[in-house]
Amino acid sequence: MTERADQFAITLAQLNPTVGDVTGNAAKARAARAQARIEGADLLVFPELFIAGYPPEDLVLKPAFQAACRAAIEELARETADGGPAVLIGSPWVEDGKLYNAVALLDGGRIAAIRYKANLPNYGVFDEKRLFARGPAAGPVTVRGVRVGVPICEDIWLEESEDYENVVECLAETGAEILVVPNGSPYARDKNDVRLSIAVARVTESGLPLIYLNEVGGQDELVFDGASFALNADLSVAAQLPAFAENITTLHWRKGESGWHCAGPVASVLEGDQGDYAACVLGLRDYVGKNGFPGVLLGVSGGIDSALCAAIAVDALGAERVRGVMLPFRFTAQVSLDDAARLAEALGIRYEVLPIAAAVNGFEEILSKTFAGLPRDITEENLQARARGTLLMAISNKTGAMVVTTGNKSEMSVGYATLYGDMNGGFNPIKDIYKTEVFRLSTLRNSWKPDGALGPSGEVIPVNIITRPPTAELRENQTDQDSLPPYDMLDAILERLVEREEPLAAIVDAGFDREVVARIDRLLNIAEYKRRQAAPGVKVTTRNFGRDRRYPITNRFRDSGKPLPEPDDTLLSRARSGSAEAFEG
Q: Which residues form the CN hydrolase domain (predicted)?
């Protein structure tokens, strides 16, 4: 294409790659380039590490994988000899024995330039410092006469610190005209506001327009929501792409006296509870699809957790790929049977009832001599859960369908779940959803569903399931509140313990009962061994169990609940830590 000094068309490919599927990701890139060419693009941009899929974790250390990614990039580069749009595409890249998180500019049949990520995140779900070498801050690349700065994800996120390389400042000082930022930024509630504030800061300090291109799709626990956007240099919104969906959009930039400017499409973006629900749907859909399961099954108890998971599963996969199984015992109330049947009918899923009395009674008979003289306790309750888990896994083995496990974050926090029982399963869409939000999302789904959801509209979760007090139904007249505080109180305490890491004294000072706080903290600590064995599940909070919160199982520390002691600075010598001054004993 000819150079146009005052016009520049950039196609944003907000796509859903699959980690390790180099061939499939390259095919997506080719299809996007064909569309970009039709739309007259000068440059086509893909998200971070697109050819590999993100995050590749330790797969990226495998030489065969590195070679496959490079070969795919080289083939795509050869194809740009056709005169179509140039391509900016992310890939792992080995140079001089070092592995980099890179972006390659492909144009004119060759690899015209490569830029490396300088700032490697090492917090939360990220641990790139153990995988990649740090790249240098480099100047812009030139595409059809336009100087494009390419900071990669964290290169715009980190604020000034000892380790921070100010890539944006370097780009601005070396003549960049537009900033194009490939990202792999996973979803978390209210994350869009954080991204926008970071982008505004970089535009303000550089005076340059900025394009923020994010990946979309599920990868194990992580969900990438897309929601890519562009800002003009005056901080006005140049474009906003939708969330939780693939999207290819070409932005037409024009250069005036004050620089480049664009007025592109602006889509609405799901946030809050709607965003969380859409993330759960996409996470389950991609986990099932990318791992090749024909469908899913789950135990449908007549309770709210399994009801919400069933709705999510149908929205993700369609009713024909979801199977519900009611597994009643003598403690199962008729209302639970009725509600479960109504749920299955509303969702249109295959549904069957498999009583477990023979299995449970058989276990108890086998154990009768071993347990002779011992009182009945939680052991017999857990036998019920484990009988159910065994039956669900048997159906899974026979049919190939994956078992969806249905424990919420409140239960997983305090260990209110049975290992090898109701914790059985391959994936949990509500693992990071507290119980109070389970109620909200269930109510929400009865009046709304996200775009692309495959389930029916309207009321799909019977109102009685939402309003009825939750119960595990493992003994007569049981409710969750026999063992736990009310969920609004429990979740408020857990949010402070898990998300904020607040000391117990601070939580008590906020108005919570000391004994309740101490008990919840104890349950949280001793349940770590269960959480380590739990199925993966969608991350929606800032601190999920697994990737974000990594506690040791063997751990004797307990917060005493007393106010934290102040440090005694009088014990520090004048040569503080890190001083080069020699120690004098």
A: 8-255
Instruction: Convert the pLDDT of each residue in 343-352 to its tens digit.
Output: 999 999 999 9
Q: Please report, for the chain, the start and end positions of each structural domain, with discontinuous segments joined by +.
A: 7-269, 274-365+378-478
- Given the residues 28, 69, 117, 170, the one annotated as active site: 117
User: Which of 3, 28, 39, 48 does the annotation list as catalytic?
Assistant: 48
Tokens of residue 361, six digits = 């009674």
Tell me, yes or no, if 153 is annotated catalytic.
Answer: yes
291 is in an annotated binding site: no
Annotated binding-site residue? 90: no
- The predicted model scores a pTM of 0.94
**Kind plus residue range of the DSSP H or E element containing 567:** none
- Residue in this structure with the two tokens 């500019």, named with its chain if needed: 105
Whether 104 and 111 have beta carbons less than 8 Å apart is answered as yes
Strands in 63-159 per DSSP E:
86-95, 98-107, 110-116, 141-143, 146-149
Q: φ, ψ for residue 235 (rounded to 5)?
A: 75, 5
Can you tell me the distance from the alpha carbon of 292 to that of 158, in angstroms, rounded to the nearest whole number? 37
Which two structure tokens, joined as six digits, stand for 63? 């030489």
405-464 pLDDT, tens digit per residue, is 999 999 999 999 999 999 999 999 999 999 999 999 999 999 999 999 999 999 999 999
Contact, 6 vs 215, CB < 8 A? Answer: no
CATH of the structural domain 7-269, one choice from 3.40.50.740, 3.30.420.10, 3.40.50.880, 3.60.110.10: 3.60.110.10
493 annotated as belonging to a binding site for a ligand: no
Q: Hunting for tokens 């932005």 — which residue is that?
A: 251
The answer to whether the beta carbons of residues 144 and 114 sit under 8 Å apart is no
At the topology level, CATH places domain 274-365+378-478 in Rossmann fold (3.40.50)
Q: What is the dihedral of CA 281, 283, 288, 292, to 10 degrees?
A: 140
Q: How many residues comprise the chain?
A: 585
Token pair 């008990």: residue:
519
Of 28, 69, 153, 437, catalytic? 153
Helices marked H in 250-303:
272-290
Whether 48 is a known active-site residue: answer yes
Q: Is 103 annotated as contributing to ligand binding?
A: no
pLDDT per position as a tens digit, 133-164: 999 989 999 999 999 999 999 878 866 556 77
Bridge partners of 250, per DSSP, are 11
